[in-house]
Structures are given as C-alpha cells and as structure tokens.
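Case study.
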Amino acid sequence: MENRRFVLASRPDGLPRPENFRLESGPVPTPADGQILVRNVYLGVDPGLRPALADAHTGDEVDDEFEPIPLGELVGYFDAGIVERSRHPGFAPGDWVTGMLKWQEYGVLDGAAARKLPPELPPSTGLGVLGIPGLSAYFGLLELGAAQKGETVLVTSAAGTVGSIAGQIAALRGCRVLGTAGTDEKCRRLREEFGFAAAVNYRTEKNLAAAIRLAAPEGVDVLFDNVGTRMVSDILPLMRPFGRIVACGQIADYGVPPEQLPGLRNTNRFITHRLTLRGLFVHDFAESFPRALAELSEWAGAGLLRCHEDIETGFERLPAAFAQLFTGENAGRKLVKIDERDRDGH
Amino acid sequence: MENRRFVLASRPDGLPRPENFRLESGPVPTPADGQILVRNVYLGVDPGLRPALADAHTGDEVDDEFEPIPLGELVGYFDAGIVERSRHPGFAPGDWVTGMLKWQEYGVLDGAAARKLPPELPPSTGLGVLGIPGLSAYFGLLELGAAQKGETVLVTSAAGTVGSIAGQIAALRGCRVLGTAGTDEKCRRLREEFGFAAAVNYRTEKNLAAAIRLAAPEGVDVLFDNVGTRMVSDILPLMRPFGRIVACGQIADYGVPPEQLPGLRNTNRFITHRLTLRGLFVHDFAESFPRALAELSEWAGAGLLRCHEDIETGFERLPAAFAQLFTGENAGRKLVKIDERDRDGH
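After joint prediction, the assembly is written out as follows.
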C-alpha cells in the first residue's frame, strides 16, 4: 500500500505557488508501541504554514516551532482522520482523531499528540471550531485580548477561519463586533450569519480608518489582527485607552521581503493611549486546551459557533488550495478531503 | 511682586526652539482654602512636554493628559520649591514640595496635588529619583516590563534621567543591564557610575543591532525604550521569547511628521517570539506611588540610586534648556535653578 505525501520542493519567492511542493510516495508507516496509525480524511490548509517554508526569518535563533522546514521534507499541519491501527490504549480503530499528521494520506501519531473528536459533531469541526483555529480565536480573544462584555472588538480578515470564530466568541461574550473582509459577499456573511454588528470591505473602501470609525465612532477596545502591518497602522489611531491588540497572524506580510514591508505607523498611540500589543502562539496555552475545548464544544453543539467550510476534494489539490489562501479567493476554513476512489487507486 | 512665567508662543515645527516660548509676567497668585503658594526653586525641563506643544496628534479625541496646550497658555511640568503660604493643614511655610507648578516663579497647588519632599535628601531629588522620572522608571521596569532577576534588560537613551534610573533599578533587582547612549562619555558613565554591564554608542556604531548582540549574545528579555521607532526596529530581532517592550518615550520621533517616521519593522517577531509591547503612562499607577516612593527613597538614601543632574541657573534659561533635550547635548536630569538675585530684581 502506497502513502502519498507532499514535500517542500522549493522555498516560495513572495506568494506561495503550487510548484513549491512535490508529490512523492512511500510506504505506509507502522505505529510503534504507544502510537496510532491514522488514515487522513480532512487535510488542513493553513496560512500558519507559510513562515515555516521560508529561510530563517531574521538570520538568528528562533524557537523550534518556527524553524524552517528543510527542502525535501514533508509539509503540512493539523488534519483529521480515522484510526486504522492502534497501539495505544486510548484509541481504537474507527475513532476520529486530529493531530499534526501533515500532508500525507496516512500518518503515525503518539497517543499524547492525538486528540479524539466528539462523535456528536461532524469530524471536520475538529479542524475548525474545535481545532487550532478555534483555540487560537479563543485564547487570543479572551486571554491576550481580555475582551470584556460591552467592549468593541475589531477582527481583521474576519471571514477567515480564526477571524470568524473570534468574532462569534466576542459576540457570545457580549461584545460589539466589527470585521474587515475582502468581498461584499464575505461582509454580508459576517453580518448575517456570524453576528457581526458591521463589516467593512477593505478592498473597496478607499479610507479604511474612516469606514471603521463610522462603524465604531467611540473607537476599538480589542483589535484581533490576522493581517499585519499596513492595516494595523490604519487602525492604531482608532484604539481606545487601554486597548489591546492581539497579533494572531500577518497574512499580508508573509513572504514580503522585510525591506518592502511598510513598517508599523502611528506607534505614538501606544504611549498616549496605553495600548498593549501581544503576539499569539496558541500552543503556549496547551495546558488549558481541555477547558477551552469543553466550552467550544458546548457552543458548537448548540449551533452558536460555526465556521464556514471551503472543502476541495482530492489529495493532489493541496498545493493549489494552499496558494489560494494568500490571494483572498478562499472564504472560511480551507480543507482538502481525500477522495476514497482516488486513494484506492480507481 | 511680579511672577514671571513662560507661555507657548508658537507650536514647534520639528525640533522645539527657544522662540516657541514667550516670557510674560503677572501677579503672584493667591492660595484659596486648601491650597498652598509655592516659590519655585528647581524647575523641571522634560521631554514629556513636547507632545503637548503640538497640534492634536491624530486629529481625534485624546486623553486630557495629552491635550495640546493652547497658544498663550502657561507651559511646564513638575517643579520643586518652598512653601511660602499655606492654607492646607498638611503643609507649613518652609516645607519643600513638588507638584505640577510649571514654568513660573510662583505657583499655587491644591494640597492633594502637592507632595512633601523628604528633608534628609537634596530637594532636587524630588524631580529625579523621587519624581516622575523615578516613578516612570520604577513602574515601567517592574510593572510593565516585569523584569526578573537574571534577565537581560536593555535601556535606550540610558544616560537620560528615566533611562539611568531604570537601569540602576534593574541592576539592583539582579538583572544584567545594557544601555545605549550618544557619546563615549555617557557610555563610560553608564558602566562606571550606574552599574551597566555594557553600553553602546548608537552614534558611532555603524550596526546597532550587531553591537548589542555582541553585548547580549543570548538576547534581550526587557527593552525599556525612550527613543522610538527606528531603534526599536533594530532591537526587535534580538528579543527573546516572551520578551517585554516598555514604550516609555519616543524622543527621536517627537515633532517628526508622521509620514517621515520610518515605521516599526520586524514586527513578525511579536508572533514568533510572543512579545508584549505596552505604552507607559506613569500616572495610571498613582495609587501605588507611596509604595514606590518608599522603596526609591530607601535606595536613594543608601546611595544606591542616583541621577546625574545637569543644572542651569536663571529662570530665563528654560526655553533653551528644553530645546537642548532634543539634540542629545544634555546628560541626565535637566533642571533650571532660579537665581535668587535674579528673582529679587537685582
């Protein structure tokens, strides 16, 4: 039995392209004691993979999590699949699990690194609301952002997975929620499906700050940012005293040579308004994942927290789906579902 | 009896110049019930006055503390002087006090807005170690920066009042302290008089980041910044995981048109290294001032915490002394002492 996998063929120069990845195949791995063999079904396509495709970011030591992936090595992030063989007492064949299985058809996980998905929810939820995106939204908004009832929360790239979940959690917690997105259709979805009070199309609004000010005349308490430098520069002058900025992602900055980035402006606002900016790395909160997952599951089970899924079918679609993340074409949680006929060689 | 005072004559265009201020004179004010009349002796010359001389910073609502001073109005900040008349039970003639008396020879303070200075220390200490600079250093370093024993602390503009005090407190708390300053003489003073482990001359070092890295090969845990955008951009790649940046001042940015500021670069470091940036406004900690002043007084009394004073004599020197703050010519706490002969009309 063959196991197909995507490896890094070349480092992206600017926006990632499908040619940066190469399809290879090898044997299906064998689980050791304490491990499980998982047959992937939903493969995650995540912007967070982008920094790991680059050369070292600043030429100096970085954390292991941000080490660049070597050329020729397997790429990917978290996936959801079905246990095929278990050598761990906590898992049985047929269980749905999620873990960092990466872009391959079959993968092996240590039991401690796998998480069983609740059978009452669709398994793809494990890559959205109950996955790293949901956890990032949860801890970013509530811990780093410390969003309080009655405050105004602005989410950038709000139609994205993390953004839409962060906005919904903020609304559930009694905040007034605003978002930015790149199409009128995404803005409509934010307002009509996700409970945002207002949404701004950053592509068509000539003056982003003015449009946001119109929607939030009293300013912004929490900025949950997924986009990066240029948009945060525009929003800083709208931040209220003691406002918090959560740096969750910088999708507009990834792959741009540092000297071409605009630089963060209006930083005097940090002093005049006593702002706090903090960078989010969700795995720092791993000890609290069970508590968060319990609350997220409750909301998801009650239909209060959803995530728009954008699912393509066919393992070989992974590189193209990933490249689309950076052009604003996708909307919501991007997943690739493995086509069973394809896997069986039909 | 005349009371001379400086008012704002024009808003600085770029660096402040002495001509931006105008000498006027009027009657000595009369204290109401609960107030005291103070004869100023040491007048403070503070970079923190600069933002209040500008037009509204961003064209939108700001806190009262940062409202621009109207043209023709009295300017200044905290001073130290002697009580001449008291209509408050807590003060008697002859007491040394500090308060926001501004650039005038005589001023009136509410009792609650005046602070008596400890008689065992020189009264000018009330404008340095025991004044707003000392309190800014204390709360910036220990509360916002949360500097811990054994950590590496980098202070920019470290030969300045706040910077030198922050560095000494960090050393007293068991941190390894590095600083930047603009002359070799200031760097020598940081090492030999203020207990800094290393000091970097930012004017003569071609590559600031490389020079700091040489002094701190393992990186920086706390950056106490008094300078602003460009220098922080250079230092960000040196910050260690979970590092804290205290934005205390932006002396290099004041008066520069926003579109000419370089913009903060290397902001990806916030996410990869989970950094926190917070703006300091010391008056937010007013409730804790007594506790801080007790500790600062103890250190100052024991000779463990000092501040280099740069004192000019003559009330009329105030505008020129203020302008010098922005050219790097001064070193340490800039004060103007009122010449008694001058005040008496000799």
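Observations recorded in class. Chain B has two domains: 2-127+308-343, 132-283. Residues 88 and 341 of chain B are 29 Å apart (CA to CA). We will return to this complex in the next lecture.
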